[in-house]
Amino acid sequence: NFSWFVRGRNWASSKQAGRGGIGTVFKDKNLKALVCLSPKVTINSNNPADLEEARKIGKMYSQEIIKLDPIQNEMRRVGTGHLPEIMNVTDLLPTENFRFGMHKEISGKEIPYSREIMRTIYSGKEGADGCWIGCTVSCSHYSEGHKVLTGPFKEIIRCRLTPCYC
User: Fold this and answer.
1) DSSP secondary structure string for all residues of 108-122
2) How many domains does the chain have?
3) CA-to-CA distance for 93 and 114, rounded, in angstroms?
4) Assuming Cys at both sites, which of 72, 79, 100, 130 could form a disulfide with 138, CB separation 3.0 to 4.6 Å?
5) Which positions ≥6 away from 161 have C-beta within 8 Å?
6) DSSP β-ladder status, 126-129 and 11-15
7) What counts of helices (H) and strands (E) characterise the chain?
8) In this structure, are residues 113 and 84 in contact, taking their beta carbons and an 8 Å threshold?
9) What is the mean pLDDT of residues 51-55?
10) InterPro entries under this entry (predicted)?
């Protein structure tokens, strides 16, 4: 997992480094952590040729996401929780330690972990967490007061994030 401190929110965030293979790279290089200090990121950080045009396109892009997301993936509502059912039917869901791309015993979209489950999980005190402040999608979600059920952090009250984040 990757963790970072978000200055604007005054909290730490983490994302899974899953399918891209970065975990294997870290293991092969015997790396436990990589620590970087970065300056504050602003719209000027990339030195856009036309700052006003970048703002205009960014606003247009955000409005399009807000309008279309409810009828497409619902990333703003359920986060990446809609992916397991899609990945299962397209043979992309890592199962049995990545040996297979779908559950043999679950046909089609009948996977028990779906966007409906995510709607239930996030029906109370929850929030969204984007990779950066101002992200329109904010596909990572949390639910306050969730208790971890297994592992070294068992019974510690924490936040529950979407399935591919912890």
Assistant:
1) TT--SSSHHHHHHHT
2) 1
3) 13
4) 130
5) 14, 129, 140, 141, 142
6) unpaired
7) 5, 5
8) yes
9) 92
10) Ald_Fedxn_OxRdtase_dom2, Ald_Fedxn_OxRdtase_N_sf, OxRdtase_Ald_Fedxn_C, Tungsten_al_ferr_oxy-like_C, W-dependent_AOR
In a domain, 44, yes or no: no
Is the residue at 47 inside a domain?
no
Secondary structure of residue 80 in the 3-state scheme: helix
105 vs 42: CA distance, rounded Å: 48
- CA atoms of 54 and 97, how far apart (whole Å): 43
Q: How many angstroms separate the CA atoms of 162 and 15, rounded?
A: 10
Full domain range(s) for residue 9: 2-37+54-161
Tokens, residue 150: 């297994």
For the segment 27-51, what is each residue's pLDDT rounded down to a tens digit?
A: 899 988 777 777 777 778 888 899 9
